[in-house]
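Field reference: sequence -> structure
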Amino acid sequence: MAWRLMYYAMLAMAAHLKKGHTELPLVAPLLFYHGEVRPYPYSNRWLDCFTLPEQAARLYHQAFPLVDVSVLSDEEILTHKGVALMELVQKHIRCRDMQEWLLQLVELLNAGYNTTEQRNVVLRYILLNGHTPDLSQFVHQLIEQSPEHETMLMTIAEQLEQKGLERGIKQGIELGREEGREECLEEGREEGIELGREKGKVETARALLRHGVSLDIIVASTGLSRDKIEMLKH
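Structure field:
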């Protein structure tokens, strides 16, 4: 019951934020009891709902642990094994050219710390959100230095390109009937590519949810709204 009260309080806080407020309200859970056993026989301290209540108290009564990848050196990140690939991508995804961290990326891809699905998610995210003057050259160099990922990389690249072109051509033809086929076909193609990127972000978010990645990290990684990611859980 204590956890249920805390859960209801969290729901009230979330509803408050959805209305546009930027700070959490104080919500005081209040339980009215009229059972046969007197007095109320259970703990009303929500931390007692944990198997290890004292450890839970230490965790939730202080600032949450933080891994600030922005201040970590690449050398240190490379020692983090299973989470190193995600940390490296988070640190460098906004760089103007992905070529700058290609060697570190290849090292982690070839290290064998991550499952095939995890590597697929990361590579898809990089191709969707990364920056480089020549994406084709970047993919080619990645394949040269990590040949075992060639099939995966080519499949992702082809899927993203095909989704964008198919949607773009269809939308361009529809618009072209009204405003002139050539002009609108190009516009539709551009919009289609953008729609393809959006769908890719949704697929990435779904994969991250399956691996238990926190909502905040998924929001930061994909650029999708919290509400949209919440909808993907169902």
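Note: The chain is about 65% helix and 0% strand.
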